[in-house]
Amino acid sequence: MKIIADLHIHSPYARAVSKDMTLENLDFWARLKGITVMGTGDCTHPMRMKEIKENLEPAERGLYKLKVSAKGGSASGGKSEKLKAGELQTRFLLTVEISSIYSKGGKVRRIHNLIFFPSIESAEKFNLKLGARGNLRSDGRPIVGVGSKELLQMALDIDPDCFFVPAHIWTPWFSLFGSKSGFDLIEECFEDYTKHIFALETGLSSDPAMNWRLSALDKYALISNSDSHSLRRIGREANIVDAELSYRGILDAVKSKDKKRFLSTVEFFPEEGIYHYDGHRGCSTRLTPAETKKINALCPVCGKTVTVGVLNRVE
User: Fold this and answer.
1) DSSP per-residue codes, 28-42
2) What is the pTM of this model?
3) DSSP-assigned beta bridge partners for residue 222
4) 54: helix, strand or coil
5) Closest C-alpha to 279, from 246, 301, 247
6) Percentage above 70 pLDDT, the chain
7) Contact by Cβ (8 Å): 151, 114
8) Quick one: which H or E segment has residue 103?
């Protein structure tokens, strides 16, 4: 079965996210855009988890769908449309993005990671454990002082079927390879747990072709998701797989990297991503890697060091 999956979004309980990002509205907009499977987003937040448990019911193994009683909910100001003949109801997969801020190798690291859960039960067990280390109620994308390796270990200890993906890996401020607080090698970050990393999220400011230039990434599947904070932007990046409609079916297809199973990704133009080039947003400065090198990485407007972007890090 051909499946389009957008597995990284946020809920109204995360900062700077539209209050319209409810499960009912996501069901409506996903069907409008032809998206088969949506991430729930923010499943560590108590209120989002409450919504999930109240409004969703089990569908295929590891996937959930909106309860019939919840389908009359508001969708962009109106009633959610009824399913048309032969139309598949949107499926949901439990997901969260976690911000880890910690010290490693003599440097403060700020890394965002995605975790996908095979069941509500697994997610709740994880939330209980992570909640002892940080305030999960403060933000839908929780900020914790737990290192990436430890976070991965925690997820796998809860359930070996949890799927862990470093998010938007090149973003300067909060990512695995980010210029401000990231690493130069995956192994530096995850050490002996690197063997449990099977996929990397490219982010809006890079695309697969850019990532293919780095041979160290050849063994990883490159996934794309919208990281959307609003309904209209869901699906701007997504994954297309030919797989069984189930949690394991989708993620096994991604993990395989088989072009007959993991077909392709939907891509945002990387040049439109705010972190693609170097520069300063406040100074309206945008520089190519060559231009940055020519001016010794000093902003021509304010004279301070520019933020090194995605294209430069790939170079």
Assistant:
1) HHHHHHT-SEEE---
2) 0.95
3) 200
4) helix
5) 301
6) 96
7) no
8) strand 91-104
